């Protein structure tokens, strides 16, 4: 009679558990458009259902081992105990890891939207990736930093372009000026990407002022800028072939 009662309650519990799982799934689908509350509430609900299921399976396992030992006293239950022990260790590790992660998230706002949390996580991951690969992975990124920090103090605009060979350069200014007594000479101020420095750590950009004279284009060389792609440090130097 007791066995029947135990089996009956086990079946009732299993039916109720299945109903809870189905209700949880339906509610998660229906309320999917909600923000952090949806994520937080259903994440904890999922873990609670998993925990209840794990405890139920563990109790069933212990009960079956006891009944097996009572029915067959001479037989070993070592194999069953090992399997139950493995299940226990895995379950404790899984739920313990979730508990630790939950504790670390308590510092964030309780009602922070899911979108903001995902965005911050992406920013953190991107920041870690940049630290591993370098602050400025491309020539364009390095030039934009150079313009924002230095060139924008003298020039109000910058137009990034590529020449016929696919090399990067930027036009800072165009206008009319004076060159060696000639007035109204068209000129263009450009910053042209040259190459990677010999130590492999910096992007090198050359500053040019190009005059369009009647005799042809004449280039007035200015400074060379180096942007360290790991630290962002900017240095300027005179070029040996410059004016």
Automatic annotation (TrEMBL):
The chain crosses the membrane at residues 12-31, 47-65, 77-100. Keywords: Membrane, Transmembrane, Transmembrane helix. This is Uncharacterized protein. It comes from Blautia hansenii DSM 20583. The lineage of its organism: Bacteria, Bacillati, Bacillota, Clostridia, Lachnospirales.
